[in-house]
């Protein structure tokens, strides 16, 4: 599960949960087949579709030097009906 970084909770991703679609950020070098295999093996679900897009890194300034963060890939994973992934939400204090 090293390729999957964390689940994403945005307005769109919460809306997609109703369609049995889960969103997460993954390592940019991971392939769709690797992510599909990891999700099916770790969560015990059946994946029927995967959509991905690469998000650019954000600009960061350190004094006079302009740098940027690393880019990453976001996957939208669609599961077969009847399967679900438990959401891990930590309560912040």
Describe this structure in words.
There is one protein chain. The chain is of the alpha+beta class. It has one domain: RRM (RNA recognition motif) domain (Alpha-Beta Plaits, 2-Layer Sandwich), CATH 3.30.70. It has helices at 11-16, 32-43, and strands at 4-7, 21-26, 47-55, 59-62, 65-68, 72-79. Strands 1-2-6-3 form a 4-stranded antiparallel sheet. It has a two-stranded antiparallel sheet with strand order 4-5. A hairpin with a 2-residue loop joins β4 and β5. The protein is elongated and about 55 Å long. The model has no long low-confidence stretch (mean pLDDT 85). This is Large ribosomal subunit protein uL23c. Part of the 50S ribosomal subunit. It holds the Pfam family Ribosomal_L23.
Brief rundown of the structure:
With 93 residues, the protein is of the alpha+beta class. The chain has helices at residues 11-16, 32-43; strands at residues 4-7, 21-26, 47-55, 59-62, 65-68, 72-79.
Topology:
Layout lengths: L3 E4 L3 H6 L4 E6 L5 H12 L3 E9 L3 E4 L2 E4 L3 E8 L14
Antiparallel strand pairs: 1-2, 2-6, 3-6, 4-5
CATH level-two architecture: 2-Layer Sandwich
Order of helices and strands: EHEHEEEE
What is the third-level CATH name, the topology?
A: Alpha-Beta Plaits
Strand fraction equals 35-45%
Give short descriptive properties of this protein.
elongated; 93 residues; alpha+beta; 38% strand; 19% helix; Alpha-Beta Plaits
């Amino acid at each position: 599960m090293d390729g999957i970084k964390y689940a994403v909770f945005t307005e769109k991703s919460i809306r997609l949960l109703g369609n049995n679609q889960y969103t997460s950020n993954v390592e940019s070098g991971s392939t769709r087949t690797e992510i599909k295999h990891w999700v099916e093996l770790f969560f015990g679900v059946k994946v029927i579709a995967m959509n991905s897009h690469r998000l650019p890194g954000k600009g960061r300034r350190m004094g006079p030097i302009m740098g940027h963060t690393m880019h990453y890939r976001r996957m939208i994973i669609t599961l077969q009906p009847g399967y679900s992934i438990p959401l891990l939400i930590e309560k912040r204090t």
